[in-house]
Amino acid sequence: MSLNTTAVRIRVTLKDVKPEVMRCLVVPITLRLDRLHLTLQAAFGWTNSHLFEFLAGDGRWGIPDPDGDFDPQPIDARKTRLSNIVQETGAKTIHYLYDFGDSWDHVIKLEKWFDNTTTEGLPLLLEAAGRCPPEDVGGASGYAEYLDAISDPTHPEHEQMRLWGPEQFDPNVVDRKALEAAVNALSEIWKPRRRTTRSK
């Protein structure tokens, strides 16, 4: 089995959030973790405004802070591939933590492997359910409070939250075309460049 021709279907669910926010994607198993981070940002509709980490087994992968006092530092996500996590930990479930303040925990399940396949055109968004919460809403509990406030005109924070968040926010409505376009744009950027031979 060549890793370069192997893809994996992943189902990614935002933990502790109702209604469910889920994305199903196909990604190359050799995708670097910093690129998996960007893929998940695009697929969910986040704005890539905060730090992130991947967690599996006893391992932590993220962007090390050269000035950071945190010890130990995470393993560099720019130098690690999804296949490395699978080989090193045997994990079938990986956690992707985005925004250490709001602590959005995305549960990534590795569902199905595709061997001897082309990885051109990947990553690919297959399914999307539930709208991504607004950034900086206060994590899962803050999001639940936000939904309560905007859905109840008698709520004391109704008007304030309605004005603070996106216009006419509906947690069940997903702009699938926009998410697909964002994910497809990444596959175009990361497309392997074909070498051209110059004739002398």
Please give a structural write-up.
- This is PRiA4b ORF-3-like protein.
- InterPro entries: MM3350-like_sf (IPR024047), Plasmid_pRiA4b_Orf3-like (IPR012912).
- It holds the Pfam family PRiA4_ORF3.
- It comes from Bradyrhizobium sacchari.
- The chain has 200 residues and is α+β, with helices and mostly antiparallel strands.
- It has one domain (5-132, 171-190): MM3350-like (Structural Genomics Hypothetical 15.5 Kd Protein In mrcA-pckA Intergenic Region, Chain A), CATH 3.10.290.
- 27% of the residues lie in helices and 24% in strands.
- The chain has five helices and eight strands, in the order E-E-H-E-E-E-H-E-E-E-H-H-H.
- It has an eight-stranded mixed sheet, with helices on one face.
- Strand 1 and strand 2 form a beta hairpin.
- Helix 1 runs antiparallel to helix 5 and helix 3 crosses helix 4.
- The chain is globular.
Kindly give the count of domains. 1
Strand tally: 8
Q: So, the CATH homologous superfamily?
A: MM3350-like
Order of helices and strands: EEHEEEHEEEHHH
Report the oligomer.
single chain
Helix content: 25-40%
For the record, the CATH class is Alpha Beta
Coarse shape: globular
Structural class: alpha+beta
Sheet of most strands:
8 strands, mixed
The N- and C-terminal alpha carbons lie at a distance of: 38 Å
CATH architecture heading:
Roll
CATH topology: Structural Genomics Hypothetical 15.5 Kd Protein In mrcA-pckA Intergenic Region, Chain A
What portion of the residues fall into strands of 2 or more residues? 15-25%
